[in-house]
Amino acid sequence: MPIRISSELPAFRTLGEENIFVMSKERAEHQDIRPLKVIILNIMPKKIETESQLMRLLSNTPLQVDVELLQMASHVSRNTSSHHLDAFYKTFDEICDYRYDGMIITGAPVELLDYEQVDYWKEICTIMEWSKTHVFSTIYICWAAQAGLYYHYGIPKYPLEKKMFGIFPHRAEVSNCQLLRGFDDVFYVPHSRNTEVRREDIERIPQLEILTSSDISGVHIVANKNGRQYFITGHSEYDRDTIANEYRRDVEKGLDIQIPYNYFPNDDPNNMPVFSWRCTANLMFSNWLNYCVYQKTPYNLDELEVRNWNWQTSL
Q1: Per the residue annotation, which of 68, 142, 170, 292 is the catalytic one?
Q2: Residues 307-310: contacts with CB within 8 Å, 24+ apart?
Q3: pTM to 2 decimals?
Q4: Across residues 54-71, what is the average pLDDT?
Q5: Is 142 annotated in the active site?
Q6: 192 is in an annotated binding site
Q7: 3-314 is classed in which CATH architecture?
Q8: Mean pLDDT for the chain overall
Q9: What does the alpha-carbon distance between residue 232 and residue 236 come to, in Å, rounded to a whole number?
């Protein structure tokens, strides 16, 4: 089954050219299927690029997924046109009375700021609190993962001596984890961040469990044991050339940026990067939609409520 998005959204044409099955909302309305309702709070600067990355991953299952896009009303985007935002994005006031099967909150280039210094901090706290009663399962990515761990559990972030930048090997720390079903013993994930969360702080919170980690890049996926929240410090959604573009941007700015780890063959920026994380990324998002959302969410979203039982077998 496809994802359901507006036929006017740039991602509709992008994914169609890649032979990914997308369906316009107009066509989907004639099918007698209750799609999963997923909302993406997109706070990345290049919103159109991030839309395509995430929708590509959400489309790779037999499930029909109805995707909506959410923006911060308290922040003015400088990298995406107001026409695009007005046409395809909603604000929290417009969706706060609705309920969703799943939610994705993206990263943002604000990690070196204290949380309270971020201009939309109060608004995103309101959304994170709302998600506990109006969204069945939420994925937090990169900065959002750190922000979510801080807001929900008081876990601090720490500055790194140098940017965690490149493609790093990871391992699972738990067995029989449905989010990780089918993963290889070692799998690769992009990271691009200047701060970290630490294992000892997470392990003090009884509701949380570290699912995956790297000897180099540290904690990767942290889950609430009830299966409702996943905090992911990496960027599995990245395209092959996303880190290359970030590297070249920083070089052009004259910043002191290292060659991304394990990314360019022979550490030569003139070589095409190896796309070593694509299968894992597709599998993780497919597992999330199937096992963590579709298999658990109420058919009638009006029945959605905070459920506190411990789904050890569903993590």
Answers
A1: 142
A2: 307/226, 307/228, 308/226, 309/226, 310/225, 310/226
A3: 0.87
A4: 91
A5: yes
A6: yes
A7: 3-Layer(aba) Sandwich (3.40)
A8: 89
A9: 9
